[in-house]
Amino acid sequence: MSGTSSGPAPDALELAALLCSRVCHDLISPVGAIVNGLEVLDDNPKPDDREFALELIRKSARTASARLQFCRLAFGAAGSAGAQIDLGDALTMARGHIEDGKTSITWNLPRLLLPKNRVKLLLNMLIIAQQTIPRGGVLTVDPIGEGEAMSFRVTATGLNARLPQNIVDLLNSTGGVDAHAVQPYYTRLLAEACGLKVALQAEGEAMVVSAS
């Protein structure tokens, strides 16, 4: 991930453009794989190659769908102002987007409705935590407090877990951002909208993202 740029924080128009770029980045790989699979089918392949192409298309379509649903909840409007979101739905979206055979989620939250910005904050905290375990591992989600005022703690454990300093800086400052860095910046904005502060720090060999 590239470092942050110098300069002022993005205005609303630039922030919208940066978030759109982030979503496109998440989708380009599976959509490109679908196109590649269709091109193989167009070439009248042998049966083995045809089955390989079909499996590639199936897998990539599932990935693209899961990423779209996650991004809709994590970055999108997700209902009207004042809307609430079921934490059970958030778990389904998170598992579809993050769990891949290398990374798993341990979810210790009760099933209840929370204001949408708190749920969006949680999903974005999971993205940050995932970036600290590039070789995979476990993301453990625990509550801080209860009811509608509930906040969250996400603990990432895995081989060679690391603390990306640029993400720490973005969570703590108003420095300029680019399309690569907009997600942690957006996470901080969500936390502020909830009256919270989000932080990333090492606790022993674990990396912890918390909002309080």
Task: Please describe what this structure looks like.
There is one protein chain. β6 and β7 form a beta hairpin. The model is unreliable at 1-6 (pLDDT under 50). The protein is of the alpha+beta class and 212 residues long. 51% of the residues lie in helices and 18% in strands. The chain has one domain: Heat Shock Protein 90 (2-Layer Sandwich). It has helices at residues 12-42, 47-75, 87-98, 116-131, 165-172, 182-193, and strands at residues 84-86, 103-107, 113-115, 137-144, 151-157, 198-203, 206-211. The strands form two sheets. A five-stranded mixed β-sheet has the order 2-4-5-7-6.
Describe how the helices and strands are arranged:
Layout: H1 12-42, H2 47-75, E1 84-86, H3 87-98, E2 103-107, E3 113-115, H4 116-131, E4 137-144, E5 151-157, H5 165-172, H6 182-193, E6 198-203, E7 206-211
Parallel strand pairs: 2-4
Antiparallel strand pairs: 1-3, 4-5, 5-7, 6-7
